[in-house]
Amino acid sequence: MSHDHDHDNELDPFAARVRALETILTEKGLIDPAAIDVIVDTYENKIGPRNGARVVAKAWSDPAYAEWLRRDATAAIASLSYTGRQGEHMQAVFNTEDTHNLVVCTLCSCYPWSVLGLPPVWYKAPPYRSRAVIDPRGVLEEFGLTLPRTKKIRVWDSTAELRYLVVPMRPEGTEGWSEEQLAGLVSRDAMIGTALAKKAGIERQPA
Questions:
Q1: What is the Cα–Cα distance from 176 to 45, expressed in whole angstroms?
Q2: Minimal CB count within 10 Å: which of 15, 41, 172, 184?
Q3: β-strands 152-157, 90-94: how paired?
Q4: Is 79 a known active-site residue?
Q5: Distance of alpha carbon 53 from alpha carbon 55, whole angstroms
Q6: Contact 83, 114 (CB under 8 A)
Q7: 108 flagged as catalytic
Q8: What integer is the mean pLDDT of 104-111?
C-alpha cells in the first residue's frame, strides 16, 4: 500500500502531537499552514534575533552598558524592553581574543526567547545537545567555524533558571558605525556561539 503523506515516525512525541493537531486544524479550515510558517520564521529569524542584536550593538558602542551587561544582564536587557518568556534570568558571556563561548541546553531546549526568538531545530536536537559539551570544537567546525587551536572554547549549559547570550567580538573596521548598522552584523547563531559576527563590508551604509 502506498502513502502520499509524510510520516511522523522520526519526530519526538511532542512534535508528533503538534503535527497531528496542525493537520486536524488545517483539515477543518481553521488555520493556514503557510501563515503559520511565516509567523514561525518571523519569530525565529527576525523579531527575536533583532532584539539580541541590538543588545550586542549597544554593548559594542557603549562601554558603560557593556559593563552593566556583564554585571547584571537581566536588568541591562530589560532596560531595552526586551523581557518576557524564558528571558527572566540572563547572563551575558563575552567572546575575547583568548576565549570563544558556546551555549547549549543539555537537558531540553532552554533558550532566551526574548532576545533570540524561537530556538532553531538543531539547538533542540540530541546530537547538538550532547556533542556540544563533548566535542565543541568539532561541532563548531561542522557549522563552518574553525577556531585557532590556541583559543579556548567555553561551553555554557542553559537551564530553566538561567539562560545565556553570547556577545561576539566586534568586527574590525566598524569604528563610527551606528548601533543600527552594528546590529546588522549580529546573527542569531553568533549569539549562541556557533558563528562569529559578520565582517564589515568594504563600504558601509550611511547612518
A1: 27
A2: 172
A3: unpaired
A4: no
A5: 5
A6: yes
A7: yes
A8: 91
- Residue whose grid cell is 524592553: 81
Residue type, 119: P
Name the β-bridge partners of 94.
167
Selecting among 105, 114, 158, 187, the annotated active-site residue is 105
- More confident: 206 or 201: 201
| Cell numbers standing for residue 20 | 497531528
Q: Which position among 61, 79, 109, 178 bears the catalytic label? A: 109
- Residue whose grid cell is 543600527: 180
Active-site position among 61, 79, 81, 108: 108
Tell whether the torsion through CA atoms of 59, 133, 117 and 112 is positive or negative: negative
pLDDT digits (tens, 9 = 90+) for 46-105: 567 999 999 999 999 999 999 999 999 999 999 998 876 555 799 999 999 999 999 999
Mean pLDDT, to the nearest integer, of 119-128?
Answer: 94
**Which set of grid coordinates corresponds to residue 73?**
544582564
Of 2, 79, 81, 110, which residue is the catalytic one? 110
The count of other CB atoms within 10 Å of the CB of residue 130 is 13
Read off the pLDDT of each residue in 12-35 and give the average, rounded to a whole number.
Answer: 73
Q: How many CB atoms lie within 10 A of CB 36?
A: 13
